[in-house]
Amino acid sequence: xxxxxAPATTAKPIIVFDLDGTLVDTAPDLLDSxxxxxxxxxxxxxxxxxxxKFVGSGAKVMIERACQAQNKVLNGEELQELFxxxxxxxxxxMPGHSAYFPGVAACLxxxxxxxxxxxxxxxxxxxxxxxxxxxxxxxRRFAAICGQDTFPYRKPDPRHITSTIALAQGNPHQxxxxxxxxxxxxxxxxxxxxxxxxxxxxxxxxxSHYEPSRIISHYDExxxxxxxxxxAQARQAAE
Length: 239
Known about the structure:
Layout: E1 12-17, E2 24-25, H1 27-40, H2 48-54, H3 59-68, H4 76-92, E3 99-100, H5 104-113, E4 117-121, H6 126-135, E5 144-146, H7 158-167, E6 170-179, H8 182-190, E7 195-198, E8 214-216, H9 224-238
Parallel strand pairs: 1-4, 1-6, 4-5, 6-7, 7-8
Antiparallel strand pairs: 2-3
Helix pairs in contact: 1-4, 2-3, 3-4, 7-8
């Protein structure tokens, strides 16, 4: 599959979504699998509040952070073993309790009908992201589903987003990111792409600290007018 983009003059505008904490509430299942690992290595189970401090940069980082919170520093071999245990448990129980956040399905329908390309750019592994969306019956909605291992870089590296746009054959000059974490916001800013942050996702600090272009509390607020306005502002700033 080519990673080259279609010419900007013919490519459609694109909206790139993060996955966990943005489109899909995966916290219950992430927590179940994380606790499966913590208990296996003799630690206490984490709670839903603590989970917010651990997620956002992929499963390995989440496991490391959760262990460090209980004063356990993992060596490379231990981390790899726990990561394998996590992936076996998580992928084996998908989709579990994971579900779209309120208003997501209706919003995606509106955006698709309006002619936007839809894509996913997540720090989840690509196989897990695709399996989750396939198990929910939603994978076909997205022109590209890119994970932390799809390219040699991942968010907050801006190339994770720009390469996702290229793979989905979207217009990089009419693009927008929707996410819930600092990694999403920093990556979009570095790519020169406007970013809308949801305020119900998985982040330790409120998303306002990271100064996204806009903040929404429900997907009913993600309107075509808001998107087109932000894309127009970005084009003007680039001129």
